[in-house]
From TrEMBL:
GO process annotations (BP): lipid A biosynthetic process
Class of this enzyme: lyase
UniProt-recorded Gene Ontology molecular function terms: (3R)-hydroxyacyl-[acyl-carrier-protein] dehydratase activity
Subcellular location: Cytoplasm
Function in brief: Involved in unsaturated fatty acids biosynthesis. Catalyzes the dehydration of short chain beta-hydroxyacyl-ACPs and long chain saturated and unsaturated beta-hydroxyacyl-ACPs.
SUPFAM superfamilies xref list: Thioesterase/thiol ester dehydrase-isomerase
Gene it is expressed from: fabZ
Protein name: 3-hydroxyacyl-[acyl-carrier-protein] dehydratase FabZ
One Pfam family it belongs to: FabA
Organism, as annotated: SAR86 cluster bacterium
GO CC terms, sorted: cytoplasm; membrane
EC number per UniProt: 4.2.1.59
Protein family according to the UniProt entry: Belongs to the thioester dehydratase family. FabZ subfamily.
């Protein structure tokens, strides 16, 4: 699965490097966290940590990829997954330069274009973050 074909995000805001596995139930994707990431310059200069909101964004992008796969639909102006909500968020580990994150997301429900996913991020099989992520399939022209 070519990530750029299914997500509208581009560098520097594309946080999925590759899809390892995808089915109609779940997705496994990865991201290498380079020491050269721009956000490390300010978060924090003497102790770089990946911001939690960007970990959540990467998790949401994995959910968008899963939804696109299930619908067999690439991102266009007429159909793109937008983040609508995040519930039950828990951060458990710091993400540092040179870490590789693995994202696992599965669908919980889908109703009228609103999708709910259970999503987790791991590094070295340790849970970094877990959340319920809500996305909506919408047109950018609305």
């Amino acid at each position: 699965m070519k990530v750029e074909a299914f997500l509208p995000h581009r560098d520097p805001f594309l946080f999925i490097d590759e899809v390892v596995e995808v089915s109609n139930e779940k997705i496994v994707a990865k991201r290498f966290v380079s020491p050269e990431e721009e956000f490390f310059k300010g978060h924090f200069p003497d102790f770089p940590i990946m911001p939690g909101v960007l970990i959540l964004e990467a998790m949401a992008q994995s959910c968008g990829l899963l939804g696109s796969h299930i619908m067999k639909q690439k991102a266009t102006k007429d159909s793109v997954y937008l983040l609508c909500g995040v519930e039950k968020v828990r951060f458990r580990q710091k993400v540092l330069p040179n870490d590789t994150l693995k994202f696992e997301s599965k669908i919980i429900s889908s109703k009228r274009g609103i999708w709910k996913f259970e999503s987790s991020a791991f590094k070295e099989d340790k849970l970094v973050c877990s959340a319920v992520i809500i996305c909506a399939d919408r047109s950018l022209n609305e």
